Amino acid sequence: MRRLVAETSLEPRHLVLPLFVADGIDEPRPIASMPGVVQHTRDSLRRAAADAVAAGVGGLMLFGVPREQDKDATGSIGWVEDGILNVALRDLAADLGDATVLMADTCLDEFTDHGHCGVLDAHGRVDNDATNELYVKLAVAQAESGAHVVSPSGMMDGQVAAIRDGLDAAGHTDTAILAYAAKYASGFYGPFREAVGSSLRGDRRTYQQDPANGREALREVELDIDEGADIVMVKPAMAYLDVVRAVADVSPVPVAAYQVSGEYAMISAAAANGWIDLRTVALETLTSIRRAGADIVLTYWAAQAAHWLA
Ligand code: PBG
């Protein structure tokens, strides 16, 4: 009876697995604050991706971690052909073809020596328009490396339009854009900064949203859709389910939500203490995010959950 009347479904195809690939390491490197998640080598990435795809996940979201000495003020290692993210995209595109949707994070924070999502002006502030030009370089390099979807996550104004124009001009008219449309300046990204070896000092409050604001999310979503976003995302997920619901109620394009590193860390830590049951709680949270209206959920449990759901 429960199965017959359940309103919300959670299937592997709804889930996207974020993966980290690092340059200059010989062994996968564990991320202490995210038990079970690692920075991959090129080889271990290929195995993890193949496993996730075999388990039925809907997509993969790739983040690149360059060597410290390759970071610079503009993040140029992000768009050069032998940058780790582009190399890994080519590996996965060759291995997986159209068996999954291959997505790439289109942002500078992993690649800059100051750790901000954009380039800085003479006053040390993030320069919105100069940053958009670099996002175009990133997006074109990622599309050329085999990404089906580019994912601007830096919250610059006009980033989606700039990327759409740049991709089209380079002939990548079929490359889709997943826009981090409503991305909050959140404490829940803490473990991610370890995951990508971020150099950030300070915070992102000048370009990410204030957790106090809900209506602003709808405005951001509307702008991104006008600019050509194919999927819009709300991030983080669990503390923003009202925002997910509000966006899902009005969005004419699919809605994604990102269950971020801190959400994963929090639940993993409680489970490791024996205080909650990992599988029950992980699946409950994913179901809740779907119930709130997300078509797609990015989660570090994607492959694991796909196995649980099999
Ligand atoms: C920026 C980016 C971040 C995350 C995804 N893309 C970090 C930030 O905005 O500070 C966070 C993901 C997570 O915490 O799991 N490229």
From TrEMBL:
Top enzyme class: lyase
Keywords: Heme biosynthesis, Lyase, Magnesium, Metal-binding, Porphyrin biosynthesis
Catalytic activity: 2 5-aminolevulinate = porphobilinogen + 2 H2O + H(+)
BP-aspect Gene Ontology terms: protoporphyrinogen IX biosynthetic process
Active site: 183 (schiff-base intermediate with substrate), 235 (schiff-base intermediate with substrate)
Annotated residues for binding of Mg(2+): 220
Residues bound to 5-aminolevulinate 1: 193, 204
Annotated pathway: Porphyrin-containing compound metabolism; protoporphyrin-IX biosynthesis; coproporphyrinogen-III from 5-aminolevulinate: step 1/4
Record has Lyase as a keyword: yes
Cellular component per GO, a single term: cytosol
Gene Ontology MF terms: porphobilinogen synthase activity; zinc ion binding
SMART domains (UniProt xref): ALAD
Residues holding 5-aminolevulinate 2: 261, 300
EC number: 4.2.1.24
The family this protein is said to belong to: Belongs to the ALAD family.
Function: Catalyzes an early step in the biosynthesis of tetrapyrroles. Binds two molecules of 5-aminolevulinate per subunit, each at a distinct site, and catalyzes their condensation to form porphobilinogen.
Quaternary context: Homooctamer.
Record protein name field: Delta-aminolevulinic acid dehydratase
